[in-house]
Amino acid sequence: MNAIDPQLLLTWARVARAGNLRLAAMELHLTQPAVSHQLRRLQEWMGEPLYRRVSRGIEPTPTGILLLRTAERMEATLEEAQALRSHTQSLLRGSLTIVASHSNAEYLLPPAIVAFRARYPGVSVRLTSTNSRQARALREGADLIFIEDTVSGADLGGDWEQRILVETGIALLVPRDHPFAHASAPIPLTSIDPEMLVWREDGSGIREHALQALHQQGIYPDIRYELSGFAAVRNALRCGLGISLVSALAGAEALPDLRVVAVTPAISHTLSALYRKGLSQAAQAFLPLLHAPEPQAMA
Known about the structure:
Layout: H1 6-18, H2 21-28, H3 32-46, E1 51-54, E2 57-60, H4 62-90, E3 94-101, H5 102-119, E4 123-130, H6 132-137, E5 144-147, H7 153-156, E6 160-175, E7 187-188, E8 197-200, H8 205-216, E9 225-227, H9 230-238, E10 243-247, E11 258-261, E12 263-264, E13 267-276, H10 281-286
Parallel strand pairs: 3-4, 3-5, 7-12, 8-9, 8-10
Antiparallel strand pairs: 1-2, 5-13, 6-10, 6-11, 6-13
Helix pairs in contact: 1-2, 1-3, 1-4, 2-3
């Protein structure tokens, strides 16, 4: 063996400092025979003993001490490289382009963007809020896509991956003086058939899942009012236009004049992320900052 294997030096540094093969093996998460094998290879490379056995374990020879100093300099160099990598990541530059459905943009992303800014102030974040269908259509121009459903493997494409972020539900949003606001149990879907429903726009994940659930109950509502985004729906309800089906995550928001009410049977609502394989550094840094909003009890 002409060239030294750097791992042998790192192993020797651990053994020499521990003074005990068994303890060093535990620190390295290796078996003691594996550590002994590495030391034999290193001694063969050096051509002379690196340690002698004593009652309490091992004791480095003068040559072993000299090699320990070399090994520790290599450890320090590796630690400097790791620190440089961490520093480089903390000083990311460039931009992060996000296209997200309205529910993701309102509930899931703001805390993550705040945390991201604190860690990576050199990265600009561009967030476009739309519905799930349009978000999927715009994905080629974005680093990260956030939608309100899941995409099958065939529709996802070979260059994209999907991560489910939040499993929640769809609930009723009603004015606080509406009879449903004081219900002690979830509202049956059949009970909302006579109500004036304010719908999200075509392409909304909430709308698609809510309609599917209603159709399964034999209900085919007449869609007369459809508004883009939760803010428009919320304000329309405040003005007395009717009631609506929204993400149950709205329960985490302070709505003193409106109530979020559960329905039965439950309607599932999934928030997920789509991203290319081979993420940019900025996208890799952003995803771990996502946390589900704290759930709150519904009326």
